[in-house]
Amino acid sequence: MPSTTAPATLATDTGAAILSLLLPHHRTTGRAPVSPAMFPHQLRQITDFVRAGAPVRFTLPGFPCKSPNPAKVLGHLPDMGERLSLTFLDALCTRIARIHPPGARMVICSDGHVFSDLIEVPDHHVDAYADELRALIRRLGLERLSVFDLRDVLGDLPHDAKRAHVEAAYAPALESLRADVRTDDDTLALYRGITRFLVEDTPDYPGTRSALQRRCRQRAYGVIRRSRAWGDLVADHHQHSVRLSIHPQPAGAAKFGIRLLDAPDAWTTPWHASALRRADGSWTLMPRAGAAQRGRLVSRDGRPSHFIQDRPLGQRPER
After folding, report:
1. Structure pTM?
2. Distance, CA of 94 to CA of 90 (rounded, Å)
3. Residue 69 predicted with pLDDT over 50
4. Dihedral, 46, 50, 55, 61 alpha carbons, nearest 10
5. Letter string b/e over residues 6-18, b meaning 16 or more CB atoms within 10 A of that residue's CB
6. Which of 56, 72, 79, 114 could potentially form a cystine with 104 if both were Cys, beta carbons 3.0 to 4.6 Å apart?
7. Of 185, 261, 170, 204, nearest to 30 (Cα)?
8. Would you say 39 and 46 are in contact if contact means Cβ atoms under 8 Å apart?
9. pLDDT > 70? residue 1
10. Are the CB atoms for 264 and 286 separated by under 8 Å?
């Protein structure tokens, strides 16, 4: 980090003020009120940037690709859910600049290729999603955001070779992960959450429900191993950054869970759902099938984008 330029007390106060901007968006399964003091790791990191007079740098692994389940999403490209989420992240960086003039920068670490074979999404869909994500950032003028993916690390290697490289270099041993699932409540919650997503995202499985669940439990271990590997790779390539997460995180964890949009479930993300604009103008995320029961589909740039609520909750559309 550059040399210190801000007095220690002022830097700490400013760091706490910046962290306070994130707290209303903390993604967690807990319900207790939180304060900056409950996040000492992030407070120390942010304060270091303030003392150095440098932009606060955030890394956010996520935005991998759309779910393959057509009952949840509108297609394989970013839509209004991603548009609103990216705009929110850029606006958060803008608000930080009001109290810390160097501002903030957000690196979206798109991790779709890391586990696309495990979640059964074609690699060309992952490429198209990441390319459109970059194009959307440019079109919207979100200058504080950037995208980082495996192409930035391993270039044009075949996707299977990239995955093998990341897994060999960074992934924890399977038995170590199994032990964490048995003994750590947060890892167990992550394992269960990913297993649920994998079950939901395999709507046409030809076997029994119990067989599908067994298969998804096995795949969930692979997804978590590679997700951890990706996190370590990101840490190597983006040192001295504040690590955000799209998964729920307890207060005091090394990663700060951040909620991008309102949703009834703390695990819901734009790439596992569709955006619905409520009658009062607010936005929420929900599966496509549920949003279609509440409103009409809107297209943008020639593609399905989102739903607008046009009938009360529970009222069926006219046929």
Report:
1. 0.90
2. 6
3. yes
4. 0
5. beeeebbbbbbbb
6. 56
7. 185
8. no
9. no
10. yes
